[in-house]
Design brief:
It is a single chain. By secondary structure, the protein is mostly helical. It has 2 domains: 143 residues, Up-down Bundle (Butyryl-CoA Dehydrogenase, subunit A, domain 3), CATH 1.20.140.160; 27 residues, no CATH class. It has 8 helices and no strands. Helix 1 crosses helix 4. The radius of gyration is 23 Å and the shape is elongated. GO terms for molecular function: DNA-binding transcription factor activity. One of its GO terms (biological process) is DNA-templated transcription initiation.
C-alpha cells in the first residue's frame, strides 16, 4: 500500500515538474506584467509565481481533469489581487502607469485571453465592472505615446552629430546635451 502511494506521489511530482517546465515561462511573464517590473529583475513577480505554483502543487491531486494552467493562472490572479496595495506605485513601463486592478483585468483579458465572465468570477466583480476596467485601461494605454517613439531633442541630436563630426552640428555645442 505504501509503495503504491509513493509511486503515485512520484508520478504526480513528475507531472507537476513537466507542467512547470512547460507553463512556467508564460506564467512568469504574466506575473511580470501584473507587477509591472522590468523583465530581467522581477523579484515580486517571481514571488507571486512561487506562491501560485505552491498552491497549485498542493491541489495537484484534486485537479482531476481541470486544466492545471487555468488553476495556476487563477491562483496567480488571486495572489496579486490580495496584494493590490503593494503594487500601487508605478514601476515604469507601459502597464506600470495603470492602477493595479486595471492592470490585472488587462493581463487576464488581453494577454491570457480569459473571457469576461471568467475574469469577473475570478475577481468577484460584476461583468460590467470588468468591461469598464478593460475600456479604461485600454484608453489609458492608447492615449500614451510609446516610450521609444519620443523624438530626440534637437539640441541633443546636434551635439551628438558634433561629437561624430557630422554636418548639421552647431559649433560650440560639443559637450552640451
Amino acid at each position: 500500500m505504501r509503495e503504491r502511494r509513493a509511486r503515485r506521489e512520484r508520478l504526480r511530482a513528475r507531472e507537476f515538474d513537466a507542467f512547470v517546465a512547460g507553463a512556467g515561462g508564460r506564467l512568469l511573464h504574466a506575473a511580470t506584467l501584473l507587477t509591472a517590473e522590468p523583465p530581467g529583475a522581477a523579484p515580486e513577480a517571481e514571488r507571486l509565481l512561487v506562491l501560485a505554483l505552491a498552491r497549485t502543487r498542493a491541489d495537484w491531486a484534486r485537479l482531476r481533469g481541470e486544466d492545471p494552467y487555468h488553476h495556476a493562472r487563477r491562483e496567480l490572479a488571486a495572489r496579486y489581487a490580495l496584494s493590490l496595495r503593494r503594487h500601487r506605485r508605478s514601476r515604469g513601463g507601459l502597464l506600470g502607469a495603470l492602477p493595479p486592478r486595471e492592470r490585472l483585468v488587462l493581463v487576464l483579458r488581453l494577454f491570457e485571453g480569459v473571457g469576461e465572465e471568467q475574469t469577473a468570477a475570478a475577481l468577484g466583480l460584476p461583468v460590467e465592472r470588468v468591461r469598464l476596467l478593460l475600456e479604461r485601461g485600454t484608453a489609458t494605454l492608447l492615449s500614451r505615446p510609446p516610450a521609444g517613439d519620443a523624438p530626440a531633442r534637437p539640441r541633443a541630436r546636434r551635439a551628438r552629430r558634433a561629437r561624430a563630426g557630422r554636418p548639421g552640428a552647431v559649433p560650440g555645442t560639443e559637450g552640451a546635451v
